[in-house]
Amino acid sequence: MFLRRFEPRTGRTTAEVINFALWPIAVMTVIHRVVIRAVNGSVTDDFAPVYQAALAFLNRREVYTANFNSVDPHYLYPPSGTLLMAPIAIIDPEKSRWLFILVNAIAVIIALYLLLKMFNLALNSVAAPITLLAAFSTETVTNTLVFTNINGLVLLGEIAFLFLMLRRKDLWSGAAIGLTFAVKPILAPLMLLPLVRGQWKVFVTAVGIPLVLTAIAWPLSVDPMEFVHHTVPYLTESRDYFNSAIVGNGTYYGLPVALIWALRIGFAAMVAVSLWLLYRYYRNDELFFVATASGVLLTASFLLGSLGQLYYSMLLFPLVMTVVLRNSVIRNWPAWLALYGVLSADDWISHRFQQAGRAAEYLKPTLGWSLLLIVVFAVLVNRYLFARREGRLDRGIDPDFLVTDGPEPRPTPAKL
């Protein structure tokens, strides 16, 4: 009888069994990615130039001295970002890198927790271990930790921004995204959301925080104008290496400039139509609208902008989570084929089929982002055309089975 106290609890329902099975796998995957993969590192080291810049800033030396003729990672953050990053150079590089890995891993976990809360999913639901395991199994989270860059914190800023905006905490929402702007403007397209929703207070802190940090950092920097004269021109260029945007891969494979622009304009038109349909027919379905539109905006910026890198796809997690909503645009196999392309950690380099394998590896994110935009566009346009044919545009464009059956019940949030 005494030993029965140590008997592990046995799952009695399918949900309990899934929870018991996935939680240890998810936790061990997180530990493996942080302690083994990330600490081992990679040839690609995004942390070293950041550490050297922070060290130079603290020692009143020039920061913006990168040689952009090399393909090594460069330091590209503005003075406000340098100010925020400066503390990492207080301790030695190895321990600082380990701490930075840990901070980014914790940031991803907090972001996933906020994402679950945003979709009203409980920690004791099967969604929690599935989300944690899936996220840390992706290329984007794995390489963010292995390369040791700041994207984990950017993800936290993004999801905190969306979470707080949906709850009408506008100043705090703006503060969350404003801190990311101080380092890199990758989330700038998301400012369209508070603009069309009339949440003007978001802009106060979203713009104010990076301006204040810049005002503080500028006189503390030895060469702040070199960021303008040396770094900004490089940021406006489209490089043909480590660039999965249309212009990057198009240039690498020697596509005509006219074809590259035709592709960019064509996808931009699809994005515009998708965003119009989302705003016109779904803006009152706030969670679906915000999560889906954010995914469309960011995917478009990765694909159509001057630089798109595969690990940016971490920022599409809110769009991926819409799969739990009945009217989600990604409840179909082409959407998940696209998500495989942008989230999978599979390496398609082949020693036997070298040319084909290299093309598959280099084009995987480009084709994935492209297919994802095509799927969203096709689903929304198809819904619109069916609703117009049936004369029910005034009642929205959701298919009949969504309108007549009512919404799916959502899990009750866990009491923490």
TrEMBL record:
It comes from the Bacteria. It is found in: Cell membrane. One of its GO terms (molecular function) is hexosyltransferase activity. InterPro entries: GT87. One of its GO terms (cellular component) is plasma membrane. It holds the Pfam family GT87. The keyword Transmembrane applies. Its main location: membrane. The chain crosses the membrane at residues 20-39, 98-115, 145-166, 172-193, 200-220, 258-279, 286-304, 366-386. It is a multi-pass membrane protein. Keywords: Cell membrane, Membrane, Transferase, Transmembrane, Transmembrane helix. The keyword Signal does not apply. Belongs to the glycosyltransferase 87 family. This is DUF2029 domain-containing protein. It comes from Rhodococcus xishaensis. The lineage of its organism: Bacteria, Bacillati, Actinomycetota, Actinomycetes, Mycobacteriales.
